Amino acid sequence: MTKLLPLSILLLSLVSCGGGGGGSSSAEQATSDNPAITPTPTTPDEFPQGFDDKVITKSSVTHVPMNLISQELTMTFDPVAQTVKGHSVINFNTKQEGRPYFELQGTVSNVKIDGTSSDVTNITDPDGQNQTYKSVNESVASGDTHTVEFDYTLPSGRVTFTGGGVRFLTDMTDLNGKFFEYWGPTGFEEDQFAMTLNLKVANGTSSHKLRTNGEITSSEQSAWKIVFPDYYSKSSFYVHLTNQSLPSKTLVIRGIEKDIPVEVYGVTQSLVDTAAAQLPGLFKELEGDYGPYPHTKFLAYMNDRSGGMEYVAATITSVASIDHELLHSWFARSMIPADGRSGWIDEATASWRDYGYSRASSTLNRSATNLANYSPFRKSTPSNVYVDGRALYAELDRQFANIGGLKPMLKALHASYKHSVINNEMFWMFLESQTGMDLTAFQERYVTGNSAEVSLKSATISEMGASKHPTPLTQEEILRLR
Predict the structure, then answer these.
(1) Which helix (H) or strand (E) holds 270?
(2) What is the rounded CA–CA span in Å between residue 276 and residue 253?
(3) How would you classify residue 351: left for phi > 0, otherwise alpha for psi between -120 and 50, otherwise beta?
(4) With contact defined as beta carbons under 8 Å apart, do 196 and 226 qualify?
(5) Are 242 and 478 in contact (CB under 8 A)?
(6) Could you tell me which residues come within 8 angstroms of residue 102 by beta carbon, excluding any fewer than 6 positions away?
């Protein structure tokens, strides 16, 4: 379940907001060489923050988002029939009374909720984000734990059937807001839950290789069981089941706290070898800057162009972008953005590093920009974050120069939100609580600038500059990588 920042730090931030640039006791004691920044551990909360924003009312019927606690999901691939069928059992609760809804890009049937037959209705978000959800046609009481069970089928094209087998790859992208709901049921990105995934190939005639960022607890010729921990969300799951033969290399990297098993595989052996040679140095750098690697292993799928995506402890990437994607193991897939309004935080961090952690020569002199002033139903990260986000970070680095700059703040931020969800408001409250500075002007100018021109503008990929963030994979590239 989602972990949120404890009330103590929120109250502290409210006390410090009126500081007008004055230092708190911790900031006063800090020096440039040794900033007095104390990470605040997170604690579990019952419901993800922001669920109140996602209640949908249609024709006087209240639809409430499911807070997924756990899911047992079985996916069966049939190369002969060329079908993908799923069976899901979800334990959940809701913050309010109403009809519970979830997201799945497939056709649902045979619904039971708490053992009683039911059905689902398709509903859309009220803000014109073109998001469609499945709402169970039965109201449930808030707070109680409920169970919903159903079958579903996926449309053609979600996997590839070839050579008597299946090729299944969770090719996600934050730029387009495409996450695990394309293959299985999920909640919102802020909703963390444990999942057991059973994969089965029926009527197959070829052998398969499974790679995943979960733990494979059972493996047979045509059936696998994968267990994912409870801090994963819809943007976390990496699953690659294929009958392709791909070159690979394994190594163990000695980290600050533990040895880190690494597998690199890809479309050519040269790409694999080049990436594997870079990783030890990158782990050393990033652990030195942001603390111990927050996961148990790392998996990298290398391709020969820039497209790809970060996952928890895994990535699809190129040699040129692997450092950018590895940083996301701390910021994005350990400290997880709550939604499309919060994705700017981790991308700004990665882009700022891409440009050598530059420090601005002045502050609050640029035009207003919008990174977070969007609908709570938005899933995609605005692409102007790579230019505008890193420029904001460069200014904050200047603003915090007397207390060691922005980098130590980011290290403490990750320590506080490790394996937890963060949103835009939490980010600013954390910085203000640690520095004792009033940062309202930075947030209003560069993050929630709300003129009509700013709120509607989203930079094109070509405007992203030299950021190492990969552009989304094309459908042709996805078919090749599967």
Answers:
(1) helix 269-290
(2) 10
(3) alpha
(4) yes
(5) no
(6) 65, 66, 68, 90, 133, 134, 185, 186, 187
The two three-digit tokens of residue 411, written as one number: 């290290």
Distance CA 218, CA 322 (A): 30
209 has which bridge partners? 242
The amino acid occupying position 106 is: G
Q: Are 47 and 145 in contact (CB under 8 A)?
A: no
CB atoms within 10 A of CB 29: 12
Q: What would the two tokens of residue 71 be?
A: 């899911």
Residue 444's φ and ψ, nearest 5 degrees, are -70, -30
**Residue 230, token pair as written in the block:** 């409870």
How far is residue 399's CA from residue 395's CA, in Å, rounded to a whole number? Answer: 6
Rounded average pLDDT per 10-residue block, the chain, 482 residues: 43 35 35 42 62 94 97 98 98 97 98 98 93 97 96 97 97 92 97 98 97 96 97 98 97 98 97 98 98 98 86 96 96 96 96 96 95 94 92 98 98 98 97 97 92 38 52 83 92
CB 374 within 8 A of CB 364: no
**Cα separation, 259 vs 257, whole angstroms:** 7
In whole angstroms, give the CA distance from residue 459 to residue 290. 29
- Contact 187/103 with Cβ under 8 angstroms? yes
Backbone torsions φ then ψ of 269, nearest 5 degrees? -65, -35
Residue 172 is encoded by which pair of tokens? 């996600």
